[in-house]
Specification:
It is a single chain. By secondary structure, this protein is of the alpha/beta class. It has helices spanning about 10-20, 50-65, 75-90, 95-115, 160, 175-180, 205-210; strands at about 1-5, 25-35, 70, 120-125, 130-135, 135-140, 165, 215-220, 225-230, 255-260, 265-270, 280-290, 295-300, 310-315, 320-330, 335-340, 345-355. The strands form four sheets. The chain has a six-stranded antiparallel β-barrel. β5 and β6 (about 135-140) form a beta hairpin. α1 runs parallel beside α2 (about 50-65) and α1 (about 10-20) packs across α6 (about 175-180). The longest helix is centred in the N-terminal third of the chain and has 20 residues, at about 95-115.
Length: about 350
Amino acid sequence: MKVLAAMSGGVDSAVAAARMVDAGHDVTGVHLALSRNPQSFRTGARGCCSLEDSHDARRAADALGIPFYVWDLSEEFRVDVVEDFIAEYRAGRTPNPCLRCNESIKFSAVLARGLALGFDAVATGHYARLVQGPDGVELHRAVDPDKDQSYVLGVLTAEQLAHSLFPLGDSPKSQVRAEAAARGLTVASKPDSHDICFIPDGDTAAFLDRELGTAEGAIVDADGTEVGRHDGAHHFTVGQRRGLHLGIPAPDGRPRYVLDISPVTNTVTVGPHEALAVDTITAGRPSWAGPKRPGRWRASVQVRAHGEPLGCSVEASDDGVRVLLDAAAHGIAPGQAVVLYDQDRVVGSATIDSTAHRAAA
């Protein structure tokens, strides 16, 4: 099988490519240039896609004896990921750029180009498992729960999964690093990236200030009383506690959290933690990892990359899903993805439009 190995310059993608070579596939490495002006070096575990990462990917490919190319997808990345990220914050929502990158770049643009060039599949270093099921290839959680990345892959369609390979899904991260060291790969001890790749310094607020500007507005309590001021509603996300700088303490002395963000009035509403409780999620833009599942059915959902699975009932249609949680959850923000699971199998995902509490409805 002709396999296109996406090589980020990290240890995971290098070992994934190595395992594809060991399996006897005809492997070609490709590094995605996602920035028009990449920094020369990453700092610690911040960011990725630097020139250093590109060189690391090339050295790994050379060590494996496979062809290696760099594909410039910076324009697609800017439009589909970065501009989407900015637009979502402008609208008062909280996006997940890694999930959007998987959807639009790694498993759309790259896979489409790879198939057009005659490749059969794209292999990545994501921690997830593919299992052959009665209706085709199924996406399952990784064996290592601390590294499981099925959430950010939840946007993939059944057709994309049929042309994807995740060689690391059955391995713990410690084994992957040990394997890289045994192979003599120089990235064996390279730190993982934990930040948004296009904000390598980790300062999301400053990045959004540059893109959206600053605009002073009010921070109000649930009854409309102004309790503080801010320099831009895009600095906040639902559930946030730190960085509010409120001038008037709550009457009961307890901390307050962001409950709502209104970009139209540039107002941020805060209140007590219990006011964050929601048990109903309405989400649009559904994507199914297998056959569509209309109607009502039991599932578990995840609303953050490393969040706890939440038991629920799902009401699904062609336009979206309505999730009825078994128990109230806190800090769920519009713009986040809700990924639907049947035990450890990903059924599909959707983008959260709104939340509510049935008891308060």
